[in-house]
């Protein structure tokens, strides 16, 4: 059977339990049509890149699906009818990833505080660069020393 990954986005004012119930409803629909959903991931309430139907945040959920195309088509039809689902995207893949998705790995890393050296400003000295020397002064910085000399002479 073909393999799919589906991500759908649900309105922010829907409770997490309702989002998970919707996910169970959709996975039951797939199972009823001869498919299976080996992995379901709730990514949480996240900020949207742009407003969708007056929502700034949304609940995200990922499905890995092993199912006939007709079952996926019916799941997409059901999501398009449901007014709580803002967007969905289904992609056919060659193989399903058994490990946690990149979004879940990112949240694990954030909880541990392991963000790498980029955010701490720990940059190594670059020995291949030469010193720039003193830079020429322009604008007010250049006029300020002359004003002090003129003010002192008067």
Topology of helices and strands:
Blueprint: E1 3-11, H1 16-32, E2 36-52, E3 55-66, H2 69-81, E4 85-93, H3 102-112, H4 140-153
Antiparallel strand pairs: 1-3, 1-4, 2-3
Helix pairs in contact: 1-2
Kindly summarize this structure in a few lines:
It is built from four helices and four strands, in the order E-H-E-E-H-E-H-H.
Tell me the distance between the termini: 92 Å
What's the helical proportion of residues?
Answer: 25-40%
Biggest sheet descriptor: 4 strands, antiparallel
Q: Can you give the mean pLDDT?
A: 82
> Which structural class matches the secondary elements?
alpha+beta
Biggest sheet: strand arrangement: 2-3-1-4
Beta percentage is: 25-35%
Count of alpha and pi helical runs: 4
Enumerate the spans where pLDDT stays under 50 for 5 or more consecutive residues. none
* Counted beta strands: 4
In sequence order, what are the helices and strands, one letter per element? Answer: EHEEHEHH
The backbone outline, from C-alpha atoms, is elongated
Protein architecture, described:
- This protein has 154 residues and is of the alpha+beta class.
- 36% of the residues lie in helices and 31% in strands.
- Strands 2-3-1-4 form a four-stranded antiparallel beta sheet, with helices on one face.
- A hairpin with a 2-residue loop joins strand 2 (36-52) and strand 3 (55-66).
- Helix 1 (16-32) runs antiparallel to helix 2 (69-81).
- The longest helix is centred in the first third of the chain and has 17 residues, at 16-32.
